[in-house]
Amino acid sequence: MTDSHKDLSAQEARQGAETGTVRWVLRISLALAVLAGLIIYFSFFDL
Description:
This protein is mostly helical and about 45 residues long. Helix content is about 60%, strand content about 0%. The termini are far apart.
């Protein structure tokens, strides 16, 4: 029986490109969620 296991380096094991797009999407969606929360809060509780 042959061993078909191949050792990969960390760079070879990565499956996606590091473009930073995911970080921008997360930042923008977090900012929009906070903004929506503030709008909902101030629409129900007037200061």
